[in-house]
Amino acid sequence: MYTVPLPRIGTDIAWRDAAKRLIGAGVSPDKVLWDFDNEMGELFATGTTLPPLTRRIKAPQSFVEMANWVVWHKDPQRFARLYALLWRLRHQPGLMQDRADAELAKLRQMEKGVHRCKHKMKAFVRFRDLRQKGERRSFAAWFEPTHHTVEPTAPFFARRFADMDWMIATPDVTAQFVDGNLSFHPGQPKPDLPEDAAEALWGTYFCNIFNPARLKVSAMTSEMPKKYWKNLPEAQHIQGLIAGAEAKVQQMRDKAPTLPPERAAKIKRQLRGDQAED
Amino acid sequence: MARLDLSQKLAILSDAARYDASCASSGTTRRDSRDGKGLGSTEGSGICHAYAPDGRCISLLKILMTNFCIYDCAYCINRVSSNVQRARFSPDEVVQLTIEFYRRNYIEGLFLSSGIIQSPDKTMEDMLRIAKRLREVENFRGYIHLKTIPDAAPELIEQAGLYADRLSINVELPTDNSVKAYAPEKNPATIRKAMGDVKSRKDVAGERSYTGKRGKRFVPAGQSTQMIIGADGSTDATILGQSTQLYGEYKLKRVYYSAFSPIPDATAKLPLIRPPLVREHRLYQADWLLRFYGFGVDEITASRPDGNLDLEVDPKLAWALQNRAQFPVDVNRASKEMLLRIPGFGTRTVGRILSTRRHRRLRYDDLLRMGASLKKARAFIVAVDWSPGGLTDSAGLRARFAPPPEQLSLF
Fold first, then answer.
1. A interface mutation test: which of B9, B71, B105, B143 has the most A CBs within 10 A?
2. Does the entry feature the keyword Calcium, yes or no (chain B) (predicted)?
3. What is the 3-state secondary structure (H, E, C) of chain B?
4. Mind listing the pLDDT tens digit for each residue in A18-29?
5. Which among B32, B104, B363 has CB closest to A159?
């Protein structure tokens, strides 16, 4: 029996390394326990060292890519499920193309979940200006991801916001980017971030880009589920916009057409004159 | 008139921009700022940073530079004859809003449009000044979409293409006659010429010179257009015919359909009814079928004699209901072309079916796992353990999908 400890930071590399050793030594899935971030405690600590890496292990590229996503899922069974599929792949090399296989379908579904979480993190992190002195500006955000997505998503923020320092704090893992260097730290409680005046402007934009004549709340919530709202500054306006929409449309309807402003006639005359000269 | 502060201007000029349907920020070149000398990145697929309660994605800061306008387009809130409150951003204000919103991860970039002030050239020059400052002074590497003014000088449009990821020129309405009737200052021929110019300029930029070097990047995310539906009497067949032509002739990335929306201070010329959102939705579905599913315009619009799409069921289902003789289709044997015509099967599902068929014979549950919508598809397919029997040709099949008839209400 092997118990494989997997750290919270660097989970992907640790899992892949262990999986390669275990597959290389022919250890079947029922002989492996995966222990994420010491969650099992001392009880299951067997202290067995993993077998050495003796040969190059081959796995389909599509499996490697899928595993790189699935390891970040919150399901405690993720590591065991991945290893079980890797075990089957030894004798069923075409398995990855079989979209009807139930085990693979489950993993694909988990992959999709992580994919979505990563996408939502890219979309919904909201930075606040820390207004610190210095050459580089500095920003910080609080975010609550569904899966362990901070580590795989942080490089996106590093590519995008390279000329500023930033921190994304989460209960799971905190990412920090200072002077061009990205680092990861244990998760933390929600920090006190300073108020940022830009949030009011962003709220103004959110309210005015909304078209009350096209109210479609379910389309909004399916893409921006309520669980994210508490960390989105613009979300505080949603209830009011929905409540006032019908009245606003009615107001437009009730208002009789107005006469054009005085300048309209003058501008029109000018425009016609210009065109005649052309 | 009291001076407007930034927040008031933003309110007026985003309100004025919300009738533009596009908020896409995808399909451009990959860029980042890892060198530490700039701000921003684009990585293929765009990101929707928020959703408004109208269900539409907010990806870009979509604003007008100004809503002063010398034109008098009947459907537009900013027409010269409207009494809407007017405002104008300074170039600096647009640049600062874009950069500060971007740094806080609110947006992917800027979609800048404008009313026509003084002249088309002057307006285009002012918009270019903003784009240029973003790119060259702020080193902004995020997404920029510029709404191009078709009457502006070709050199200006060409310059716009060097700063922008996407250009759009709106055809406004589905037919030339409607444009003439409702947008008297606009000329359909000029609009088409401007789109043609952008296309040929982009074609040239894609070619390599004799030294093998590529030309300067020119609108990497291509061009798009928008037409308003429901304001004039055009049928869906006319609209889809027009977009097919636009996709073909100008290699447009997208044609956006914008259901005419009641606007504040509307002109008496136009209907003040709630926009036909379902119609807009059906047009987008039909547009997809034309581009990715191998359907022709005639096939899609043949199901109803009036040339409009069926509002109760989606266009693919409508076609299948009309052409039941071609069903049921055996998912284990059918060609890709035929699989794509099955209601409830998307392009991805079809791809999965084709790859899985090499390994096993497909059963009903297998299809479920591949993401097919069997509620729709079941009447039209045969699998190892599934046959629809008489369902395919049953008289009540349409009623299973169409919503129950609405009770008339007293008014």
1. B105
2. no
3. CCCCCHHHHHHHHHHCCCCCCCCCCCCCCCECCCCCCCECCECCCCCCCEECCCCCEECEEEEECECCCCCCCCCCCCCCCCCCCCCECCHHHHHHHHHHHHHCCCCCEEEEECCCCCCHHHHHHHHHHHHHHHHHHCCECCEEEEECCCCCCHHHHHHHHHHCCEEECCCECCCHHHHHHHCCCCCHHHHHHHHHHHHHHHHHHHCECCCCCECCCCCCCCEEEEEEECCCCCCHHHHHHHHHHHHHHHCCCEEEEEECCCCCCCCCCCCCCCCCHHHHHHHHHHHHHHHHCCCCHHHHHCCCCCCCCCCCCCHHHHHHHHCHHHCCEECCCCCHHHHCCCCCCCHHHHHHHHHHCCCCCCCHHHHHHCCCCHHHHHHHEEECCECCHHHHHCCCHHHHHCCCCCCCCCC
4. 999 999 999 999
5. B32
